[in-house]
């Protein structure tokens, strides 16, 4: 579930496995990684609007989720 700045929540198919895959590839949390996550989520048949503004919002939220995922993985491996 993604939560946007305006408190909108969206269910996303394949989010957990996509974050796990991206993490296993050793990707850093940056714009390029956000675009790759979006691309993979679209492959899971998630609708992500094509407007630049919407994609930037998604990228921001997905990077926040990915950073959280990386932190959780790092904390669990200590």
Task: Give the mean pLDDT.
Answer: 95
* SSE sequence, one letter per element: EEHHH
Strand elements, count: 2
Distance, first to last CA = 27 Å
- Number of separate helices: 3
Which assembly state applies to the chains in this document? single chain
Major sheet characteristics? 2 strands, antiparallel
Identify the overall geometry.
globular
What this model shows, in words?
A hairpin with a 5-residue loop joins strand 1 and strand 2. The protein has one domain. It is globular and about 40 Å long. The chain is mostly helical and 78 residues long. The protein is built from three helices and two strands; from the N terminus they run ββααα. The protein has a two-stranded antiparallel sheet. The longest helix has 25 residues. Helix 1 crosses helix 2 and helix 2 crosses helix 3.
What's this model, at a glance?
This protein is mostly helical and about 80 residues long. It has three helices and two strands; from the N terminus they run ββααα. The protein is globular and about 40 Å long.
Describe how the helices and strands are arranged:
Blueprint: E1 2-3, E2 9-10, H1 15-24, H2 31-43, H3 52-76
Antiparallel strand pairs: 1-2
Helix pairs in contact: 1-2, 2-3
Short key terms for the protein model shown above:
62% helix; two-stranded antiparallel sheet; single chain; 78 residues; 3 helices; mainly alpha
């Amino acid at each position: 579930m993604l939560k946007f700045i305006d408190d909108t929540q969206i269910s996303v198919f394949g989010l957990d496995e996509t974050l796990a895959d991206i993490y296993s590839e050793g990707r850093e949390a940056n714009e390029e990684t956000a675009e790759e996550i979006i691309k993979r989520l679209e492959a899971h048949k998630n609708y992500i609007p094509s407007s630049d503004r919407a994609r930037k919002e998604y990228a921001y939220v997905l990077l926040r989720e990915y950073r959280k995922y990386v932190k959780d993985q790092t904390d669990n491996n200590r």
